[in-house]
Amino acid sequence: MDVSSKKIVILQHLILSHHNLGEWGSLVQPQLPEAVALHYIDQLDAKLQAVEDALDTMPDGDNWTPPLRIVENKQIYRVKKN
């Protein structure tokens, strides 16, 4: 496969830019609509995973998580399952 083909260049850009910022490990910033979307999907996935982890580790009697930095220091309410 030709490594300079359009599809390969786009795929490389998606991979290299998905963290968005250099301080977050990204070599380049997203410059394609698909790269912007991938960045936000990756960010959303990380935030939801952190929320799930916080809920999973809460003591049984607690209703609220501690403030979670990843979601702007919001507390998350645990809905009790019947």
List strands and helices in order, with pairings:
Blueprint: H1 6-17, H2 33-56
Helix pairs in contact: 1-2
Enzyme class: hydrolase
Keywords: Hydrolase
Protein name: 3'-5' exoribonuclease YhaM
Order of helices and strands: HH
Structural class: mainly alpha
Mean pLDDT: 91
Number of distinct helices = 2
Helix content: 40-55%
Main sheet summary: none
Euclidean distance between termini CA atoms: 55 Å
Strand content: under 5%
What are the salient characteristics of this protein?
82 residues; mainly alpha
Structure characterization notes:
The protein is mainly alpha-helical. The chain has one domain. The chain is 44% helix and 0% strand. It contains two helices and no strands. The longest helix is centred in the middle third of the chain and has 24 residues. The protein is elongated and about 60 Å long. The protein starts with 5 loop residues before the first helix and ends in a 26-residue tail after the last helix. The mean pLDDT is 91. It comes from Paenibacillus allorhizosphaerae.
Summarize the structure.
This protein has 82 residues and is mostly helical. It contains two helices and no strands.
